[in-house]
Amino acid sequence: MLTTFTAVVIIFIMIIFNGFFSMSEMAVVSSRRSRLRGKADNGHPGYKAVLDTARDPGSFLSGIQIGITLIGILAGAFGEATVSDNIESYFINIPLIGNYAKIISVGIVVIAVTTFSIILGELVPKRIALTNPERIASVLIYPVRTISWMLLPLVKLFTAITDLFMYILPFKPAVEPPVSEEEIKSMIREGEEFGLFRREQRDMVEAIFELHETRLSLIMTARPDIVFIEIKDSLKKVREIITANSEYLYLPVCRNGIDNVIGVVKISRVLRQILKGDLKTINSHIEKPLFVPSGTSPLRVLELFKSGRTRIAFIIDEYGGVMGLVTLEDIIEEIVGKVPFLHRTGEPEIIRRKDGSFLVDGLIPIDEFFEKFPAAAEGVHDYNTLAGFLINKTGHIPATGDIIRYRSLSFEIVDMEGNRIDKVIIKKI
């Protein structure tokens, strides 16, 4: 008969094996595939083995669970058959409790084995695995694979039974990408909390994701605000237009209006010739224009800018007319935020006046307006600017002097350019 000490040592070894399986399972399940792939690409076979296992973990997890379950059953049965008998001999001759010696000894063994199994066989190993899951998984993967191979007949049997139950039950595995946009954003936020990323970096990453869903109409220069050169303009007028708009990088060249764009000219090149007095014609400076449908993603436009020579694109509506234009700088600002030297004009879109009211440009993007004036914010909308917002609320084109009240704000139209709202004074009611 085994001594109590020998039996306890054997049970302890079983619990350690249980912890080995638990640590292996947690390490593999918690490993990030991006990290595993990076190490595997650098020639680390252990990481490649973990990556292969993570892609199809069915047999691996079945082997782990069989091992953990067998050890748990064996530890309990062995403890009851050996240690409890030895403990029972201490209680059997004690008055009052002698009749309950068997129950007491079994209870002590069950409580002790369960406690140590939970702590040393589950909690501690899993905590250790979470400290560096990829590294730990790469070390443990080969011995666990060997044990899983030894248990292969049982693994196949239980896997087949499990598959049968999954076929019968109304639960089907979801087909999902290995990583989602929200998971990437979450990882970036966690990295920011731990000091790996700055807030500006996190904002840029999130802006890139949002850029895919951003409409070009929200970031474009609208049709009424496009400054362009007519191909038939005199050389004197061309000089005046270019000199007056030298803050732009490009200007469109059109024939009989903005709907017939024949090309663009780079202002810096033409301006150098103007300053030298060498400009005779702009025809030799005209570059081929880029046209994109209004539904094109800004990211797609960015790809076109990278693959071509131009940094300006004209947005075309379903009827073939020009809605507006977008530049590389417009898209960059959507990612990195407002950059002062990229602004087309020095005039701010919102000016606070001495009386506490605000003078606001009618073409300010509606999202920027809602950010500054959250009292007016709405959910889904089909307008892009403050002007569109006001026309939507009134149902008609307002005139100079009209006052529109909405929620806690008053909007006074102080300047119109034709049918377009140019300037608005906003006051709190």
Describe the structure.
- This protein is of the alpha+beta class.
- The chain has 4 domains: 165 residues, no CATH class; 31 residues, no CATH class; 127 residues, CBS-domain (Roll); 79 residues, Uridine Diphospho-n-acetylenolpyruvylglucosamine Reductase, domain 3.
- The protein is 54% helix and 14% strand.
- It is built from 17 helices and 12 strands.
- The protein has a 5-stranded antiparallel beta sheet with strand order 8-9-12-11-10, with helices on one face.
- Helix 2 runs antiparallel to helix 3, helix 4 crosses helix 7 and helix 10 packs across helix 15.
- It is elongated.
- The N and C termini lie far apart (93 Å).
Write the layout of secondary structure elements.
Layout: H1 4-30, H2 33-41, H3 45-55, H4 58-81, H5 83-91, H6 101-131, H7 133-150, H8 152-168, H9 181-193, H10 199-211, H11 216-219, E1 221-222, E2 229-230, H12 235-244, E3 250-254, E4 261-266, H13 267-276, E5 291-293, H14 298-307, E6 312-316, E7 322-327, H15 328-336, E8 350-352, E9 358-361, H16 366-372, H17 386-394, E10 403-406, E11 409-417, E12 420-428
Parallel strand pairs: 2-3, 5-6
Antiparallel strand pairs: 1-7, 3-4, 6-7, 8-9, 9-12, 10-11, 11-12
Helix pairs in contact: 1-4, 1-6, 1-7, 2-3, 3-7, 4-6, 4-7, 4-8, 5-6, 9-10, 10-15
